[in-house]
Amino acid sequence: MLTGFNTDVEYDGVVYHVQTEDKGLQTPFILSLVYTGGAILASKRSPYDDLLAGGFDESVLAKRLSRQHKLICAAVHAGRIEDLRRLGERDANEKTTQRQQAAAKRLEESDSERSTELVSEVEPETEAAAPPDYFAISGSHKDQEPLRVILLDDTEFIGGQSVTLRVLVSRAGSNRREPARKARVVVKALGTTFRPTSTMATTNPQGIAAIPILLPSFESGRAAVLIQAHIDGETAELRRIILPAKSPE
Description:
The protein is an alpha+beta fold. The protein contains 4 helices and 13 strands. A hairpin with a 6-residue loop joins strand 7 (162-171) and strand 8.
């Protein structure tokens, strides 16, 4: 899996965050997402099954990854947000059609052999889940927290990996939470078998900070990532466990 790209692009006074990543050989496609205010505005998926079929070349994949990221950033910079949104909807529709065609083919092939199992082989049609609204008021006591910090991509952390943490910091408002712009975000890697490391960043107008870090490599003991946000005397934090580095087989 290749390291992806994260870029902030400003257009008409609004800062958009563009993220492009390789989803790995088990799910071979390149995914680009356009965010603002913690909400996903557009997405672009590009399968690379052809690379696997013709002999995988990581350098070719790296070029495709870079090219797609640059194209999406250029489109955002040109104000083509709606075009990107429609492109994402078209990709989703095409994927749904492909799923339906694949399901129909499997049904046709298996109908004569096991008609009682047809239902289990049909892939259900489901609507795409709406992106989470991190600023909505739900009535939970957490919505009243003066300052709150969350990870937009809550993935598994493993020692020795290089990752980019996308952190959203928000403040309590009268009707909904608001982005905490220019909040100071400190990321610390703490462990029982290595010396602590620390990295700092500042949130953009949408309350988002992208912080690239190298997780310390370790094979024993305990470790965690501590994320702290500070602004106007207020502090919020969260922790995530770091798993030991996997021993080579």
